[in-house]
């Protein structure tokens, strides 16, 4: 496999992880409602926080990608997403969890701009279509992985579902958290 296709796969992996984080909280809603007694409206609001964070930072990440380069932006964004996932799983307060999910969404947005530029930079214009199409599969792949894995993890450990989307983050406390708003 050539370097261009390796770069494409890296972009797909990082972008899949970001969409797993951004969309994965929705798969925690049943657990938030049943295990923690979180009202459905609050659980839905929590699930939307990563998407809101992504929306407010996409343009900034594009600017930073132009200034710093896609590799730095993807690396920093992935590290911050992992830290936010860990932090969200570690707090007791739903408000704090929502704040960390928002920050994680802000960080995860980095892969949208940087991942596309990374792939397009490695392919000539007449060869970019297929590579970008493959890269675009990252969004549904990340969401599908979340749908398959997060509900199962959450049944075993409520914190594990939040920690799973964080790149390189493993573990978590066992048992249910108290609800403090």
List the helices and strands and how they pair.
Layout: H1 3-24, H2 29-36, H3 40-68, H4 70-90, H5 94-108, H6 110-122, H7 128-136, H8 138-156, H9 160-163
Structure description:
The chain has helices at residues 3-24, 29-36, 40-68, 70-90, 94-108, 110-122, 128-136, 138-156, 160-163. Helix 1 runs parallel beside helix 7 (128-136), helix 3 (40-68) runs antiparallel to helix 4 (70-90) and helix 6 runs antiparallel to helix 7. It contains 9 helices and no strands. The N and C termini lie far apart (51 Å). It has a domain at 42-163. The chain is elongated, with a radius of gyration of 17 Å. The chain is mainly alpha-helical and 181 residues long.
Order of helices and strands: HHHHHHHHH
Strand content: under 5%
Q: Find the count of extended strands (DSSP E, 2+ residues).
A: 0
User: Terminal Cα separation, in Å?
Assistant: 51 Å
Output mean pLDDT.
88
> How many H/I helical runs?
9
What's the alpha carbon Rg, rounded to whole Å?
A: 17 Å
Q: Approximately how much helix is present in the residues?
A: over 70%
The largest pleated sheet is described as: none
Detail the poorly predicted runs. Answer: 168-181
Annotation keywords:
181 residues, mainly alpha, 9 helices, 0% strand
């Amino acid at each position: 496999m050539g370097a261009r296709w390796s770069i494409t796969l890296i972009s797909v992996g990082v972008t899949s992880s970001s969409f797993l984080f951004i969309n994965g909280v929705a798969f925690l809603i049943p657990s938030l409602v049943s295990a923690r007694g979180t009202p459905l409206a609050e659980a839905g609001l929590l699930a939307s926080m990563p998407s809101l964070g992504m929306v407010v930072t996409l343009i900034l990440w594009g600017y930073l990608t132009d200034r710093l380069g896609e590799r730095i932006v993807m690396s920093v964004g992935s590290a911050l997403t992992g830290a936010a996932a860990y932090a969200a799983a570690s707090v007791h307060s739903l408000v704090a969890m929502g704040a960390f999910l928002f920050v994680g969404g802000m960080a995860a947005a980095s892969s949208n701009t940087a991942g596309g530029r990374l792939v397009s930079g490695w392919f000539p214009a007449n060869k970019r279509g297929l590579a970008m199409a493959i890269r675009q599969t990252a969004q549904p792949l990340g969401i599908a992985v979340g749908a398959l894995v997060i509900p199962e993890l959450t049944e075993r450990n409520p914190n594990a579902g939040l920690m799973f989307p964080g790149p390189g983050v493993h573990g978590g406390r066992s048992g249910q958290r108290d609800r403090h708003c």
